[in-house]
Design goal:
The chain is 34% helix and 22% strand. The chain has 14 helices and 15 strands.
Length: 424
């Protein structure tokens, strides 16, 4: 459905989100900013009220149509609250008219949680950086001319970049290929209520960069390689016969000129055979680097982008009623997940205006998953790894941090778990 008055079609990446939001995988992600002083609730509310005016698309509610979900403008207002419930709880509840994002705070930390139909991590960070900047402007009487470097017009922020850049290709073929692999599956003791367990680890960004240079590779490649090593350390001899596949979201704004704050990402799968692991990290980084190079080639990025458009442009799928789509997409998503071991999303360097940097300690990001997912982001010299999992312990992530300490890096850990250290 095209945009009419106050109705919006979901972008192509968002179309599968409501059908796959089940159990522990609420499809809600959290981004955080820890300041150097406690948060003022009234000022944060004022900053939110002013910032959301630049992002009208975010103030929508989700409805079920005959063939697709769609968004509708609402007069609802997000109310800032002190955090009092578990992180990343569902935002979309069938039949309930509610906003698809929330803003809360606890002591020095401001949290934005968002349902993935509205935006990806990069788009949400565009909004969040504006919110934090506005809050600090008001709190410390800073110049109102201060703006984040990626500030775009209202029209640019709300555009559907998938539609703007789509070219007709056989996207469904790539989706089928993605689900054809049977990868090693991480397991653990599930939380009785499938509540998300968060683990955050902070390291020196400059020290991590030095480590990447030591192994003659990039930060992104080393992150994935070390995580694969951590997964392998938790596998027995029989399990090592299966490949470790790390799903890596790719920000398509790097390849297509777009200032959209909505979803605009693709996913590549980094596939590694544990039989090739020699005990040295080089035996993983070389393979990961080659996989990145191949899958980030322009022609493959275009295929990745178009695979998200395939659902919308396939006539047979387009005409199927929504209840059947929900069932089919859910089954398809479950099959595709069997081809993935885990996910790692690197949101890169978070840049803020120089005038506000001294008031900020760090940023962090977390994304729910049916198994586990790691998000990475860096601000100044603090590189933060955030994992969300429905498992009561974090064996793979603790292995990951041990790999870093073995390389001489110091780790600062934070968690919402009471039993973190019992796992050691």
């Amino acid at each position: 459905m095209d945009k009419r008055a106050n109705w919006y079609e979901l972008d192509n990446a968002a179309k599968i989100v409501p059908s796959t939001a089940k159990g522990a995988n609420t499809r809600v992600f959290r981004i955080t900013c820890e300041l150097k002083e406690d948060v003022n609730k009234e000022i944060l509310q004022r900053a939110l009220d002013e910032t959301i005016e630049e992002y009208p698309f975010f103030n929508c509610v989700l409805h079920r149509g005959i063939f697709w979900y769609y968004l509708e403008d609402s007069d609802l207002k997000a109310v800032v609250e002190e955090e009092h419930s578990p992180a990343c709880m569902p935002l979309y509840i069938k039949g309930k008219k509610a906003l698809l994002y929330r803003v809360n705070y606890f002591k020095k930390r401001i949290n934005l949680e968002m349902f993935h139909v509205l935006a990806d991590g990069t788009g949400a960070f565009m909004f969040f950086k504006n919110l934090i900047t506005r809050y600090l402007q008001i709190r410390y009487n800073l110049s109102e001319d201060i703006k984040p470097s990626d500030d775009f017009s209202v029209e640019e922020k709300n555009v559907d970049a998938f539609t703007d850049n789509y070219s007709k290709q056989k996207g469904l073929k790539q989706l089928n290929e993605m689900r054809s692999v049977k990868a090693y599956q991480v397991s653990g003791e599930l939380d009785d209520n499938l509540l998300p367990h968060l683990l955050e680890g902070t390291v020196s960004a400059s020290k991590f960069l030095e480590l990447a240079h030591k192994y003659n590779t990039t930060v992104g490649v080393l992150c994935v390689a070390l995580y694969i090593k951590a997964v392998i350390q938790g596998m027995n001899r029989h399990q090592r016969k299966k490949h470790v596949v790390v799903s890596v979201p790719v920000n398509l704004r790097q390849f297509y000129k777009s200032g959209t704050a909505r979803n605009f990402f693709g996913v590549i799968n980094i596939d590694y055979d544990p039989a090739k692991y020699t005990g040295e990290i080089d035996s993983i980084t070389d393979q990961v680097a080659a996989d990145f190079k191949e899958k980030l080639a322009p022609e493959n990025i275009e295929k990745t982008m178009n695979s998200y458009s395939a659902l919308e442009h396939n006539l047979a799928i387009k005409m199927v009623p929504l209840p059947i789509k929900d069932f089919t997409i859910g089954r398809f998503d479950s099959a595709a997940k069997r081809g993935v071991t885990t996910s790692m999303s690197n949101l890169g360097l978070i840049k803020m205006p120089k005038e506000v940097e001294d008031y900020i300690d760090r940023f962090g990001a977390f994304m729910t998953a049916s198994s586990q997912q790691v998000c990475v982001c860096t601000f100044m010299d603090k590189m933060v790894f955030g994992e969300v999992s429905p498992y009561k312990t974090h064996k793979t992530m603790l292995n990951f941090f041990r790999c870093l300490t073995e390389e001489g890096l110091e780790i600062e850990l934070g968690t919402n778990d009471y039993d973190l250290y019992e796992d050691k």
